[in-house]
UniProtKB/TrEMBL annotation:
Limits of the Aldehyde dehydrogenase domain: 223-658
GO molecular function: oxidoreductase activity, acting on the aldehyde or oxo group of donors, NAD or NADP as acceptor
Designated name of the protein: Aldehyde dehydrogenase domain-containing protein
Gene3D superfamilies the record matches: Aldehyde Dehydrogenase, Chain A, domain 1, Aldehyde Dehydrogenase, Chain A, domain 2
Domain of life: Bacteria
The entry's keywords: Oxidoreductase
Positions in coiled-coil regions: none
Pfam families: Aldedh
InterPro entries found in the cross-reference section: Ald_DH/histidinol_DH, Ald_DH_C, Ald_DH_N, Aldehyde_DH_dom, Aldehyde_DH_Superfamily
Amino acid sequence: MNQSKNGIQEPESKPSVTIKEYVDLLDKYIPDWKYSWTNKLMLLHNEKAVWEISLVQFKYMITKTDKLIEIHEELLFWATTTHHNTLKLEKINWIWQETDTWEAKSWDYDKRAVFEWLRKTLEAFDESDKKHQPLMDWKRWDVNEILTKENLSSTIEKTFTWRSFDTDRVPFWKNPTFRTYLINWEQREFTWELQKVLSPMTYMNSEWVLINHELPGYPLLWEKEAMEALDAAVNAYDSWEWEWPSAKPLERINKVKEFAAQIVKDRENIILFLMWEIGKSREYAATEFDRTVEYILDTTDEYEALLAEDGKIKTTKWITTTVRRAPTGPTLCMGPYNYPFNETFTTLIPALLMWNTIIYKPAKFWVLFNYFLQKGFMDCFPKWAVNIIYWKWKDIISPIIKSGKIANLAFIGSDKVADDIISQHPYPHKLNSVLWLWAKNAWVVMAWCDINSTVKQALAGSLSFNWQRCTALKILFIQDEVFDEFAKEYLLQLSKLKFWFPFEKWVNLTPIPDLDHLDFLESLIADAKGKWATIINECWWKRVWSYLHPAVMIWVEKWMRIYDTEQFWPIVPMVRFGKLDEVKDYIKESKYWQQSSVFFWEDSNAWEVKELIRFLSNQVCRVNLNTQCQRSPDSLPFSGRKDSALRTLSLKDALEVFSIPMFVASDEKSQIWLNAIDDFRI
């Protein structure tokens, strides 16, 4: 043994032991080890098993045999270089200090030899087990590829821990104070304590602790302010004296166009808040803003086309009629935080154009940007047309719903929250609910498909804005023949994606604001791994405070939570299937259905493809062939089945869902009075 600088003895050469010797030692000291691991190849592949054997079983065995010390050293070295969070270096050091051996920090063996040894070890375990043969293939990949990726985990940690930036360059950092809210056409200032807002972006403070940047706060409103907003919306809708309920269609169209022009002036500020509040990259934030403005203008064009059809005098049998759209009443709009600007306005603008008055409550994340919208609403719309309130929905939305005065609910979020809100309405049958809820969109990769093209679509469909899209890929069904090839290519392409804070140019993966949701995701991962699922990019899958690197998971089965739970974050569950019946069973039993994608060659088995498309057409609302799930273009219907949505939205459908057909009928003698409809708001 050699003496190191710190006085700790080190081995003279790399230890070596045969598989038979190792297994004999296990049999000698832990006779039931084969049963405790259920023969699942988990000795070196599952970090839970490695952890247990390291801290519990090996502690006793280390003191009994030098040969086992040597093999244990290689095992721990492998674990520390491939597992980011399970085998902490300090705990490993403690074990070796307890047994008077060398510290883990002093190990300096050839990594390539360690991985070669791991490969041989895996090959020795139950090679006759056909089901798990592909699992061993993951360790047969080019060693150079593995060695390249093993450093990615530490790169992720250094990126989000040590790289910092100057907050003084951010124009909104010191002002304005976001104390205002909009009620009764007044930008009221809130004089009490503000709600703290933490950015998902982090920095290392003077005490070497990783913390989130604190942004300006927003008002903590309560029931009193909520009821004032409700009274304003109800009074404006019920009274014919106020400007908005009595406005003609052309006036409303012009007001909405003025509003679009007004918010364009604050484009840069709104993009900055998309970046700092929810971690959206500059490119994605700019795309969301521009698409929203385009949507607003397209909606006004669609409304003009609708007006051209409405109001025509028609005679059916002996009745002469003219039909127009009429408003339905005060509308409560509650947007999401993943696409807070775009998806909020896809309900707010159509409802507003159809004469309805609005109470708008933003999501708990991405609230501050509404400061810039308040002035636009005040300048472009008349009194009481739009009211903006903040804080928890249970504190300010519950009293509004319980009043029974809300006619329309536009909600984007989870089905559980939607049910809680609707159940509080005293007359639920009167509430026109427009709901976009969770989804579990499945991708079906057939044996006959273009792997490169499919992987590109899969990456775009799964990781656009960190998978935080209702239309994102949520579970992958891959046929046996292409499973290994597809998973390997997906992993290789994933390793090339850029991650850091959102102001980095063309960054793909960024932190998110909801730390509670990250804890939930880690519980999904722990549940799946505890039931024998495997993260194949384990060596560089990592969480650093508000950032979670995508986890690619195989051997996902129906008894795991990730199988049917909407994860809303980049956990990529891959399910191997042989016959299409397995996919059909999943889709029939799922509670969420919005869209699905099918990937195949054009010269594939035509009967199987047609049969699958026919089946999906009766289960989901959109079947995508060789392309990712998506909402666009906005002119197409967007909806969902089961617990994924209620109502259909497109440019035209959105206008119709927030209005109701109304017609005036007359006999031949009274036809002249039909034109009087133009004098009314309908």
